[in-house]
Amino acid sequence: MNSFCLAATAFILLFCLSSRRVDAVEHGKNIIDIHCHTAGIGAGGSGCFVSPALQNSWKYRIYLKAFGVTEKELQKEGDSLILRRLSEKLAASQRVAAAVILAMDGVVNDAGELDTARTEIYIPNEFLAREVRRYPNLMFGASVNPYRRDAIQRLEKVADGGAVLVKWLPSIQHIDPADKRLVPFYLKLKELGLPLLTHTGEESSFTRTRDELGDPERLRLPLSLGVTVIAAHAASNGRNCGERNHDRFLRLSQEYPNLYADISALTQMNRLGHLLRLLNHKELHERLLYGTDMPLLKTGIVSPYAFLFRLPPAKLLAITGIENPWDRDVALKEALGVDDVIFTNVAALIRMPARIAKLISSKSNGGRQ
Fold first, then answer.
1. Where is the signal peptide (predicted)?
2. Residue 239, H or E segment
């Protein structure tokens, strides 16, 4: 490459990065990530665990690297290290102010107790609720398997502990959202004002799944009872009963105004085209929520260059050059057509702790109180 080409490339890069900084200042730091994961191996008495099958999988090392930790570091400092690293990286973001960190309950046996033999990953509510209070930019997303013997009491406890939502991953927790035995659980969710964030579509992050439980049609029961339901990933992959899950989600969204969806994971290379297809439904924009599915953003499955034929080279270069994963994700989704309404919907949906509301207000006003 000759000197002229080098100079031209440098000029384009500097121009694009300068534009990005201006955009960040203009927009302010007021975005909430509603879909952010943590993990743990039980270090420091956390109570977390990862199944032997998942630890022996090639995915395990990738996840540790994406979280920015090693197994040795976790053994030395405890599982709370992952939350500290998440908070620090989030604090460095110019656009995203806070994130909902998700607990993960396990599979439950016939006696209504945790079945560790069939559970792939477990992140207890008690550990997460305690740890997120230490950070000004993290919120508690609880997880309660409704088949637990004391599920209602657990719901009340996590609500008292500051939970802003309840998270399910039915295909690995073996939860059937359409099971009529769950009606009391749903009514308690509604009473407590806790949204249900539940995975929809296929699941590929674990070693075994029951993907039929991710069928969005199974959400009719909680929706009919008035529960606020958030379909994680907008059912963007897989099929059930001969239909695309996404089409089944769209039909439900027309019937139930209490059905929302997050846009996490929709820029992954295994979901190309899904975000653009979803954004075509303008009537849904006020019910779409920003999320990242962190740490998957940092596993190599998301790249701006996957959109080489949709975005101009200068824009791709600028986005690729953004170091912070949240800022890079926001910039990519903005370039693909995600509007300000979608980026700010989360704040209007969840009951934010006072410390988070204050943080959002401060960051939105350039740090001025």
1. 1-24
2. strand 239-240
